[in-house]
């Protein structure tokens, strides 16, 4: 294949401007840049996880502080049945995912409240 020269690149740029408009192109370039940055950081994390040994990941999970689970108060009559075993503490990644979901819900509710005020 032949390489693209200056005239070909100018034609491609002109077609992009005609298709998307001059105002949309910077927004699209920013979006592509952000996506590439996120993709690179995620692939770097995956490489780091692959390089780690299984014993190392077990140690980091054991060092994470466990969140206490609230115990429901049950009447005496129901308490005769054996209580279910407590669920294992979630991993650090799971805790981070739950916190991100909570933050997204809080942002959404704050945005909807702000829209109601306006």
Number of discrete helical segments: 4
Query: In terms of structural class, how would the helical and strand content be classed?
Result: mainly alpha
> How many β-strands, per DSSP?
0
Q: Give the topology string: H per helix, E per strand.
A: HHHH
Strand content: under 5%
Largest sheet: none
Describe the global form.
Answer: flat
Helicity, as a percent range: 55-70%
Spatial extent as radius of gyration: 26 Å
pLDDT below 50 for ≥5 consecutive residues: which ranges? none
What's the overall average pLDDT, rounded? Answer: 75
- Calculate the terminal CA-CA distance, rounded to whole Å: 58 Å
Organism: Nonomuraea jiangxiensis
Biased composition (Low complexity): 105-118
Protein name: Sec-independent protein translocase protein TatA
GO molecular function: protein transmembrane transporter activity
Written description of the protein model:
This protein has 118 residues and is an all-alpha fold. Among the domains are: 1-51; 90-118. The chain contains four helices and no strands. The protein has helices at residues 6-20, 24-51, 54-63, 92-117. It is flat, with a radius of gyration of 26 Å. The protein starts with 5 loop residues before the first helix and ends with a helix.
Give a summary of the structure in a few sentences.
It holds the Pfam family TatA_B_E. Among the domains are: 1-51; 90-118. The protein is built from 4 helices and no strands.
């Amino acid at each position: 294949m032949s390489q693209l020269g200056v005239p070909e690149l100018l034609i491609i740029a002109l077609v992009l401007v005609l298709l998307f408009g001059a105002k949309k192109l910077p927004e699209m370039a920013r979006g592509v840049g952000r996506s590439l940055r996120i993709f690179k950081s995620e692939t770097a994390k995956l490489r780091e996880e692959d390089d780690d040994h299984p014993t190392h990941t077990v140690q980091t999970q054991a060092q994470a502080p466990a969140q206490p689970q609230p115990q429901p108060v049950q009447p005496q009559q129901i308490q005769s049945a054996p209580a279910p075993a407590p669920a294992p503490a979630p991993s650090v990644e799971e805790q981070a995912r739950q916190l991100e979901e909570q933050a997204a819900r809080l942002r959404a509710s704050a945005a909807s409240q702000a829209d109601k005020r306006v």
